[in-house]
Specification:
Elements lengths: L4 E5 L10 H5 L5 E3 L4 E3 L21 E5 L5 H5 L14 H4 L1 H17 L25 E10 L9 E7 L12 E4 L14 E4 L13 E7 L5 H7 L6 E8 L12 E7 L4 H13 L7 E7 L8 H6 L6 E6 L10 H7 L1 H9 L3 E7 L4 H14 L4 H10 L3 E5 L1
Parallel strand pairs: 11-12, 11-14, 12-13, 14-15
Antiparallel strand pairs: 1-4, 2-3, 5-6, 5-10, 6-9, 7-8, 7-10
The structure holds flavin-adenine dinucleotide.
Length: 396
């Protein structure tokens, strides 16, 4: 086999050989010898059932490979192999395989606390994979606005892309793929990166055929620098839309508990705008916990402040604000335990967590603490929420 594929692997340096993953796997893809616990590429179906039970996180590892590692290879590993260089040209230019690897990337971002993600029952049906690497949409940059203080080294941009005459149907919570032009060090084309939509389905203004993204410039990052440097009028190749589960319920009475850091705010801007457009008088609870280092570094700080508190309950949390103690999203969640336990007890509440991977653990712990002090079992609540499409994570 030579087409790039996603392979599930276990980190032998972190794994404590407790075999809970092996018990959890419904397709017997996980096995072990005296040395290592390993995943059979030919059996693993990415169901993610093994992720949550793993006490160390060693199970949550993935490689895009042109030739999958065999069980024998994995039995001998002392450490995980480096990610091999993959490009559009690998596998005889298998664009389909690369598009599949985007789907796997998304599944990984949504795996979060384990389990298969399920869309809210009342969510609109999403369109996915309409434009792929072989047939990308071409967007024109309509605007590129810096969202954070010019002096700060945290450069986050609001990018508006005009889709012109192309039909590019999106839902809030979906992502798009952007492929940076040019080639990598080995002369191969770059792989696309995913970016969440920060605009609602009907555009930045109602009935405009455009989409918005919230992109943070990463030091040495290929695609983020390309996107953050885009100028009005530039043409950009866009694939997608991607994602069929991290979606908002259409039910205007649904409460939305949204927890994010940094660019994780993108889908929540879209959710809030959608609600403002379709149900401005709704008395459901929209609650946002949003963490950043300082107010200057919080994307959409100005516009967010203008959203009436009656419509959106905001908890803006800063970890480096002058004259204030460090505070993280999970600390504020604990302070607002009563509000959160009310929300998680309601059958109308949908929970969304979005941002960097390292926020997951603190948020989970906060939910555990809040639930147990209210005499509730968070694991049970979370399982039920997930099964009903009411608990969503997107971390990257
Ligand atoms: P890459 O070039 O891929 O580099 C990755 C990291 O490696 C960077 O931090 C970079 O500093 C470091 N690096 C690169 N080259 C070197 C080097 N030579 N030496 C040392 N370090 C190096 N991002 C957003 O900003 N907004 C979003 O809304 C968003 N949504 C996402 C949604 C999903 C579902 C997923 C999976 C990801 C999302 N991301 C989002 C992340 C995004 O896809 C990219 O991963 C991110 O922009 C970095 O890509 P890059 O090409 O700039 O960095």
């Amino acid at each position: 086999m030579s087409t790039p594929q996603k392979q599930h692997v276990i980190d032998p340096e972190v794994c404590i050989r407790c075999y809970t993953c092996e018990d959890a796997c419904p397709v017997d893809a996980i096995t072990h010898n005296d040395d290592n616990v390993v995943v059979d590429f030919t059996k693993c179906n990415f169901c993610m059932d093994c992720i949550a039970p793993c006490p160390t996180g060693s199970i949550d590892n993935w490689r895009v490979v042109t030739t999958p590692y065999s069980l024998e290879d994995q039995f001998f590993w002392m450490e995980l192999p480096e990610q091999e260089e993959i490009s559009d040209k690998d596998g005889g230019g298998s664009i389909e395989a690369l598009d599949q690897s985007i789907e796997a990337l998304l599944a990984e971002a949504h795996a979060g606390a384990g389990g298969k993600a399920i869309a809210p029952p009342s969510a609109s049906k999403p369109t996915v994979n309409l434009f792929n690497l072989g047939n990308p949409a071409e967007a024109t940059v309509q605007g590129n606005f810096r969202l954070t203080n010019e002096q700060s080294d945290n450069d986050v941009r609001h990018i508006i892309l005009d889709m012109g005459g192309q039909t590019f149907p999106v839902l809030e919570g979906q992502s798009v793929g952007i492929t940076p032009p040019g080639t990598d060090e080995s002369g191969m084309p770059y792989l696309p990166r995913l970016y969440s939509l920060s605009s609602p389905r009907d555009g930045e203004r109602p009935n405009t055929n455009n989409i918005a993204l919230t992109v943070k410039r990463e030091t040495n990052g290929v695609c983020s620098n390309y996107v953050c440097d885009l100028k009005k009028g530039d043409k950009v190749k866009v694939t997608g839309p991607f994602g069929a589960t991290f979606l908002m319920p259409n039910d205007p009475q649904a409460n939305l508990l949204m927890i994010c850091t940094g660019t994780g705010s993108a889908p929540f801007r879209a959710f809030t705008m959608r609600r403002q457009r379709i149900a401005p008088e709704s008395n459901a609870n929209l609650v946002l916990f949003f963490g950043a280092r300082t107010p200057d570094a919080l994307p959409y700080f100005g516009p967010l402040k203008k959203v009436p508190d009656r419509f959106l309950h905001k908890e803006l949390v800063f970890s480096r604000e002058e004259g204030h103690d460090k505070e993280y999203v999970q600390d504020r969640m604990i302070k607002k335990a009563e509000l959160i336990s009310q929300l998680i007890s309601s059958p109308h509440t949908y929970i969304y967590v979005c941002g960097l991977k390292d926020m997951e653990e603190g948020v989970e712990e906060a939910f555990e603490t809040i639930a147990s002090s209210a005499g509730l079992n968070w694991q049970d609540i979370r399982s039920e929420l997930r099964e009903n499409g009411r608990y969503h994570l997107e971390t990257y």
